[in-house]
Amino acid sequence: MRCADEELRPLYALAAFSGIRWAEIEKLEWSDIRENEIIVKASKAKTRSRRVIEILPNLAEFLAPHRGRTGSVLPLATQQSTKGKPSRKRLERARHRIEAEAGLVPWKNNALRHSFISYFFAATSDENKTAALAGNSPEMVHRHYLALVSREEAERYWKIGP
What we know:
The chain has helices at 9-18, 22-25, 57-63, 88-101, 111-124, 127-134, 138-145, 151-157; strands spanning 37-40, 51-54. By secondary structure, it is mainly α. Strands 1-2 form a two-stranded antiparallel ribbon.
């Protein structure tokens, strides 16, 4: 997170601490982020199902400086000025720069989402809640994320803050 500039930090925090897919983050508006929850509308979700994601305390800390913003969560620097729509190439260049600077290359597209699922499941042992937050099935969570990290590792993960 330290390598990400202030404008991109919320995107990384959303991916790491809410389990939202990058493709969903790219469509997210600040109005979708409420005080205690994030609404991923069906039109923005990969699964085309609306889901409500609880904002956990460390994510709330990362988002606090950005409260009151409007429009896309994507920084203006990654948007095309003529159309106001996200420029995927600009966002990808910014992400690649940050990830290279952090020594995280090669970096899988939804690596932080997978971290969220692994650490949340380890912390709660609740595949149903984990699946609901991530937009997966409990079977998928159990099959792919069971015992990947320890409870102690999960406790450290959920203490990460700005």
